[in-house]
Design goal:
It is built from 26 helices and 22 strands. It has about 675 residues and is an alpha+beta fold. The mean pLDDT is about 85.
Length: about 675
Amino acid sequence: MTEIAHMTEADAANRLMRLAREIAKHNRLYHNDDAPEISDAAFDTLMQENAAIEAAFPQLIRVDSPSRLVGHAVSSPLAKLPHAKPMLSLGNAFADEDVADFIASIRRFLRLSDDEGVALTAEPKIDGLSCSLRYEHGALVLAATRGDGAVGEDVTANVRHIADIPQHLPDTAPPVFEIRGEVYMAKADFLALNAQQAARGGKIFANPRNAAAGSLRQKDAKVTAARPLRFLAHGWGEVSSLPADTQYGVMQAIATWGVPVDQRLVRLVGGDAVLAHYRAIEAERADLPFDIDGVVYKVDRLDWQERLGFVARAPRWAIAHKFPAEQAQTNLLSIDVQVGRTGKLTPVARLEPVTVGGVVVSNATLHNPDEIARLGVRPGDRVVLQRAGDVIPQIVTNLTRDVPRAPWAFPDHCPECGSEAVAEEGEVDVRCTGGLICPAQRIERLKHFVSRGALDIEGLGEKSISEFFEAGLIRSPADIFRLHRHRAAILGREGWQEKSVDNLIAAIEAKRNPAPERFLFGLGIRHVGQVTAKDLVKAFGTVERVAEVATREDGALELTGIDGIGPVVAEALREFFHEPHNRAAWDDLLSEVSPPAFVSNVRASPVSGKIVVFTGSLETMSRDEAKAQAESLGAKVSGSVSAKTDLVVAGPGAGSKLKKASELGVTVMDEAGWHALVGETTQ
């Protein structure tokens, strides 16, 4: 926080941009690939830093901020399945004070009297894969993973093989009821599975969570059926009615329907009681049959949950109280450098294998030169690792940094192509300057171009891209659309038959008119993620118009006028489109594909896009509740009145803001008028 206090606005914007990209990467590795590179604790640290900077610079909150997003967009062979109600994430508490603040915020939001207790449910936070089970008239009809919270993966056929999940609910269950919980693997079952895999020469799973996720997300449900998966319910989604008016009551009803609910779920009143329960669960943690990483608290009264509502990515009425990270010591054997899609050189520590929290690990990312300097690590050092349930942990301490030994020198040339490697001004990451002449960047960019978030070409995965690149069949994105010319060459390769080649060519042809935001994202322009790409084509209509503005002398001014687009993105676009080889690749690609104009499907509300100010005393809701309601309807809530203000909602005691609104001719209404205005939208 001391460092943040001394940040300039430019520093903060740059750091938020880098955090958004880094956190998005780790979300993808965790949620989609089941292959995380950092520990839970390290990820939580990144999220905490992002939240702290946003609190200090609220005007810089990005459209793609990690505080607004849940999980990661679905990227798997399984069909996509939208959720009837979003599957959101949870906010985190790391200390007793955070729990006290959580309870205090509930009291403030609901305007509770001092003598009115806040009842919470508390249950272990199991480390599994979130899953939603939809029952209609008692029958299980759909099952989906969380995905990005809005769209998950269809795992209906797979969950039918999990014994804990009933195929039918009793007649007493409501006609429509979505049960949500975690698919997991017990510790003993995990060890037995790995023993079987080792005996067969199969894949060895790093931990029970990865084993459960990999077992559930199978195209072949027979694989899932052969794995020892379990299920525990912890909530619900869309329902036609509820069997009780409290969280605890509904969970008990779910248990009576034959769906497993953790027996450690309790209802408690007050901070002291929930913290005592947290300590008890923490002491019991090692002896539990499954992995947990904390305790989840939820407001018990459902009418209070309704009033509290949600922030961007999590409910206000629930929080996860995380356990401290687990640690171990080992030796650092060597440091390797990997080159990514954007040319970033990432140092990776190769470690003497050590067990941390029940998982054997041998690698840890060192992120960048600053991290290596901070730790002072060199091959031969004794280091402390920290892990909280993931595969590759974080090095937190170097125990031998004072031992005389030459420092490890970060390379100044790319290990893949030999081009100069430099850090741009204001950046800590070192990048290869070779661009598309660097084989590591070129192949990674091609993989990115066909990935699920970009063009999403069925059958053209990372393995095929690597194969065709090595064979000289593709060198640029446009070459993908010329693969049909090499049909005979592909047929002559191992594993490619008539049907698979025909299917691949058909899948490529189907993408000759890609969505403009996917096309722009697929180019791999630095700082242009999925959200930013959509913002750009939404503002300019076509990808050609984006390129035209980016290359104009005054283009930066027009670009930064778009909400969510800052000078960093504007400069990245300018650099990309001014680079001759990028322009050549762009022109070549547009000779093969034709992205259409962007079409928006956003629904309007009476206050969508308007700037609203609340002033005076509100009688039917708290100020926080009013702000949350307005923002949920697409409005922007401001704390001050200006000529840009569209609407002022004034309650009793309104003073200077009401006066200024009158002077400026801003529309003013009372609280009843506000409810009348938005009532139809909120029904």
